[in-house]
Every structure is written in structure tokens, then in C-alpha cells.
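Researcher: Let's do a round of design. I'm pasting the C-alpha cells now; please hold your answer until I've finished.
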């Protein structure tokens, strides 16, 4: 047994939770498509994808076998080739969670193109900048999203705009019937074509296309949600995505033919990572292309999945549902919550444990396990592996991730239970931000050990078992009369009050105090009729628990706080709400 140094990244105490197979992984040096082709050869007749929608009451939908799935990827590649798409060319995709979104990523991999998977929740302005900077010639867009992005699309000289309507996965006779019945039409422009027309172009190419691969090739670009500054395009290589898939498959949670309930967009890094490890792992993915937060309890009962990935908003809706309260929803094999830490009260309620609970190496039947990651680390990074769960922790590093806690802004690593900035290194860390060396160099920093570390901007600590406890975001910090204010720390305090459903804290300029914290709070329904008394009580508790500079200058109640695509409270939107609706000097709601 090696001697411990007291430095987490050297000791790696989390490795005790993994078996020998997980500790000796060799990442496939190939494209993401080539990995899929290699890993799926033994279950080509199994179901890979099934699309379900609410209008059909989430009943069984059209299914796609792995054999058909690979065929669709090859057809997509041929069609890309037929319209002149070249190696390393960036194409734009704005798609929901439908089979064609996945096919576009793997089909692009065959020809060596790079999809920039743009989230439909992002603004047209951001899309305009992406099109300007990257000489994009071809775009794939879901028809219902067109109206939102119409002006941007029309202002650029795109060679092809390929439209999908969500019916592509249905048999041709059925899809044609629905298009006619619902009067679904593509706007009439010369460079606008349907997905079926696009696929027909590829039929002219009779022979298979040789699969492209080049070391450090960017297989996918996904956008950050922009909660900590200017949104950026994160470049994920084949190696990044293959490493993420391999480490997820290796830990033994996934079995061939397991059912994975998938509500994630591939324009979110963890959605892309989940796409790859469920595909390579031989799982059956039930795709839900719409937001289902309030429908999730019913959906879990309807589909009976083995695995589900969601966020705090999903957990809250489950906890408040009649299905959970009456015991109709049972724990599944692997329910993971990520994106933001769970409130302690919610974690207690779902898992029926107390704050000092830990598994001590023996897995228990918990309802939810937390995880933590970032877009820059291919989505995942930490997971509360069975046997490693501790209340309030967000898990241990995945097998290929090396983690450490550092003094913010330095490469001085701290010991166990010391609070600092979380940094990680390993094969899942992104290549770079697209066209942004300045921002890349801020987060990818070579330390004195010679390794390139990703500075996550998350503050917290690692305990002696390797469990990470997340506290708040470093990048949201500001100064108030010379004191450092961490909005995340204030939010953590507010979120754990019984009155509070969720909270968001922003910093606003103040003529006397430099910057001051303003807290937006959504109350649990039972307290909404007593806002003034609740506000007084929250202030009383703030004065007891928080340092004076961290006490909010004002607490503003909203029925609902805006949530970004990562499942977190959208702080930029709160800043906009504040600017548009509140008098900056009196802090009173404009009537």
C-alpha cells in the first residue's frame, strides 16, 4: 500500500471504489463513428433508439435497430459528401432530441466534418456571431425553430438550409399523411430543402465512404450556457468523446439492452456524451424531444427505464408529485442529477437519509445520486458511484479524471477538506474554445507538474475518500466595500431555507458600496401568501448566518426564476429582469 501524501491528485483515494477493469483503460484512437462501428457489431439487431412524444401519451413509438442506425449515419455522410462538405468543415445544427440529431453527429464524423450543435434556447444574436466567424455554408434546423432564427438565416449566404419536421423517423406513408394533414410546409426559397431531399442526394453515391480520422480532430462543438460570461464554443475531439464513453461503460452500471430515458439535447455536452456511451454500450435509448419536467413522474412510470439523467428541476417535480408521495415511483438502477447541487431538503426527501449518511463502500438503494461536470470536460466528471455516496457530495472523479483543489488563480494544490478551486486533468478535457485563445488560456493552464489542468471555476473541497463537495462559483465573485462577495455562497444559504424553492443572487453597481448583492427568491407555494413576514424572517436569519457584506441589499420575490438549459438559475436573465423592471436607486418594482 502506497504512502499517502495528503494531496488528492496524487493519492487518488477515489480509485478504491473502482475495479481493475476501470483502472486500466486505453482510450480508442479512432473517430467516434469508428468506435460506434466497433462496439455495436455484436448487437446490430437490438433496438438502439425509440422516439416517444406526449401527443401520443408517450406510448411506444417507432424504433430503430443498431443496424438501421449505422445505415442512417452512412446515408447522412453520403449526402454531406454530395453537397460538397469537406474535412474539418463546420456545419450548423439546431435540432431537438430526435434520432436525426444523433445521426448528424455520427454521419459528420464519417466525412470528417464538425457539427456546431446550437441549442434552440440560445439567442439569434449568438447564432449570428457563429455564422459570421466560421464561414458556415450548411445548416440543419428543426422547422418549428425557424421563425426564431429566420432573420439571422436570411442575412447569411448559406448554400443549403436543410429542414427537419420531426416526422423523419416515421414510416414514409405515415409521415406524408401527417405533413399533409397538419399543413407542414418548408418556406419557399431556392436554398431551402427538406431532409428527405437531402438524403436523396446521397443515393447517387453507391459505394461506401471511407471513414475519416485524424488525431485531435474536433468531432463536435457545443456552446456554453454563458452563465459566467460570454458564451463560447467548446471544441470536443474524438478522443474526448471516446474517453468519456469508455469510462462510463467501464464502471459497470450499464448493461446491453438496458433502457435509458433520454431527455437531453446533443447541444449540451453531457447530452452528447450520453449519446455516445449509450450507443457504444448497447443500450436502448428512449428519446423524448420535448421538455418534460412536470411530466417526468408519469414518464418514469410509463417507460420503466434503468437509467435517467436530469437536474434539480426534475428532482423537485418528482418529489412534489402524487406518484412519489404515494410510493408509485420506485428507485431505478441509476438516476443521476447534475447541472447544480440539490438542496439538502430535497436530497433528504428523495433519498430518505439524514445529513450524516454515507454508504461506506456498501451500495444502498437510493433514489438519486448526484454528479458534476462541465461543458469543457465533455459534460461529466464526478459521479456518486454506488458505495461512494455521501450526503451533500456530488460524487467522486470518474476513472479517467484526475482532480485536485487549488488556491484560486494558482497551481498550489491544497489538502483534504481545504476549500479552493476545483481543477481537473485527463483525456476528457476539451481541446480549446473555438476562435478564442484568450479565454482558452484562462481555463486551460499548464501547472508545475507539466500537466494541462482545466480550472473549473467551482469552489469546494475533496474529503479523504475523494468525494467532492461543491460550494459555489468562483467566477461570479464581486467586491463590496473591499470585501469579496460570493453569490453562490449566499444562494446556498437561501436555498436551504424551508421557505425557499430556489434563489439567484446577482451583483449590481452601487454608488456607495461599489457592488451589492441582490437576491431573487421563489418561495415554496405554502409560504407565498405571507411574503412580507417571510422576508423579515429571511433577513433575520441572514444577519445570524452571513457576514454583514454578504447580506442581500434587497430580496425580490418572483413566482418563478428563469432556468437555463443546464438546469441552473439563469443569472444573466435575472440581471436583465433587474435592469428592466427595477429602479436602480430605490430598488422598487416599476408599476
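Researcher: That's everything. Go ahead.
Model: Designed sequence:
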Amino acid at each position: 500500500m502506497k504512502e499517502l501524501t495528503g494531496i488528492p491528485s496524487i493519492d487518488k483515494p477515489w480509485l478504491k471504489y473502482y475495479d481493475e477493469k476501470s483502472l486500466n483503460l486505453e482510450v480508442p484512437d479512432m473517430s467516434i463513428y469508428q468506435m460506434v462501428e466497433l462496439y455495436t457489431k455484436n448487437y446490430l439487431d437490438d433496438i438502439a433508439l425509440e422516439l416517444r412524444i406526449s401527443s401520443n401519451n408517450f406510448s411506444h413509438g417507432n424504433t430503430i435497430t443498431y443496424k438501421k442506425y449505422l445505415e442512417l449515419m452512412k446515408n447522412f455522410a453520403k449526402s454531406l459528401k454530395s453537397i460538397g462538405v469537406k474535412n474539418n468543415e463546420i456545419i450548423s445544427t439546431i435540432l431537438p432530441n430526435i434520432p436525426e440529431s444523433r445521426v448528424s453527429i455520427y454521419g459528420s464524423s464519417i466525412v470528417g466534418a464538425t457539427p456546431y450543435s446550437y441549442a434552440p434556447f440560445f439567442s439569434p444574436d449568438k447564432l449570428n456571431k457563429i455564422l459570421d466567424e466560421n464561414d458556415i455554408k450548411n445548416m440543419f434546423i428543426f422547422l418549428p425553430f425557424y421563425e426564431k432564427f429566420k432573420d439571422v438565416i436570411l442575412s447569411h449566404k448559406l448554400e443549403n438550409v436543410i429542414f427537419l419536421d420531426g416526422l423523419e423517423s416515421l414510416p414514409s406513408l405515415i409521415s406524408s399523411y401527417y405533413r399533409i394533414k397538419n399543413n407542414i410546409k418548408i418556406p419557399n426559397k431556392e436554398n431551402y430543402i427538406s431532409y428527405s431531399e437531402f438524403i436523396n442526394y446521397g443515393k447517387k453515391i453507391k459505394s461506401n465512404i471511407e471513414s475519416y480520422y485524424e488525431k485531435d480532430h474536433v468531432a463536435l462543438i457545443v456552446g456554453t450556457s454563458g452563465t459566467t460570461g460570454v458564451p463560447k464554443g467548446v471544441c470536443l475531439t474524438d478522443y474526448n468523446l471516446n474517453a468519456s464513453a469508455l469510462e462510463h461503460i467501464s464502471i459497470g452500471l450499464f448493461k446491453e439492452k438496458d433502457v435509458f430515458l433520454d431527455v437531453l439535447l446533443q447541444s449540451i455536452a453531457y447530452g452528447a456524451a450520453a449519446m455516445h456511451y449509450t450507443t457504444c454500450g448497447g443500450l436502448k435509448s428512449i428519446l423524448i424531444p420535448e421538455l418534460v419536467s412536470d411530466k417526468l413522474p408519469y414518464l418514469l412510470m410509463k417507460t420503466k427505464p434503468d437509467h435517467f439523467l436530469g437536474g434539480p428541476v426534475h428532482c423537485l417535480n418528482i418529489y412534489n408529485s402524487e406518484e412519489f408521495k404515494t410510493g408509485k415511483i420506485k428507485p431505478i438502477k441509476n438516476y443521476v442529477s447534475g447541472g447544480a447541487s440539490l438542496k439538502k431538503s430535497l436530497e433528504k426527501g428523495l433519498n430518505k437519509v439524514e445529513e450524516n449518511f454515507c454508504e461506506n463502500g456498501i451500495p444502498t438503494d437510493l433514489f438519486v445520486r448526484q454528479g458534476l461536470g462541465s461543458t469543457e470536460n465533455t459534460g461529466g466528471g464526478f459521479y456518486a458511484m454506488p458505495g461512494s455516496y455521501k450526503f451533500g457530495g456530488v460524487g467522486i472523479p470518474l476513472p479517467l479524471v484526475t482532480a485536485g483543489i487549488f488556491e484560486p488563480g494558482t497551481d498550489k494544490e491544497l489538502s483534504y477538506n481545504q476549500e479552493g478551486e476545483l481543477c481537473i486533468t485527463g483525456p476528457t478535457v476539451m481541446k480549446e474554445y473555438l476562435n478564442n485563445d484568450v479565454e482558452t488560456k484562462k481555463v486551460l493552464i499548464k501547472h508545475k507538474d507539466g500537466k494541462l489542468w482545466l480550472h473549473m471555476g467551482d469552489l469546494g473541497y475533496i474529503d479523504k475518500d475523494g468525494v467532492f463537495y461543491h460550494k459555489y462559483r468562483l467566477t461570479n465573485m464581486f467586491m463590496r466595500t473591499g470585501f469579496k462577495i460570493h453569490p453562490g455562497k449566499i444562494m446556498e444559504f437561501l436555498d436551504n431555507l424551508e421557505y425557499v424553492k430556489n434563489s439567484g443572487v446577482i451583483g449590481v453597481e452601487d454608488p456607495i458600496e461599489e457592488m451589492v448583492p441582490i437576491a431573487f427568491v421563489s418561495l415554496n407555494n405554502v409560504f407565498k401568501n405571507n411574503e412580507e413576514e417571510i422576508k423579515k424572517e429571511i433577513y433575520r436569519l441572514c444577519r445570524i448566518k452571513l457576514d454583514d457584506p454578504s447580506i442581500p441589499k434587497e430580496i425580490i420575490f418572483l413566482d418563478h426564476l428563469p432556468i437555463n438549459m443546464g438546469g441552473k438559475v439563469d443569472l444573466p436573465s435575472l440581471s436583465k429582469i433587474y435592469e428592466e423592471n427595477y429602479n436602480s436607486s430605490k430598488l422598487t418594482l416599476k408599476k
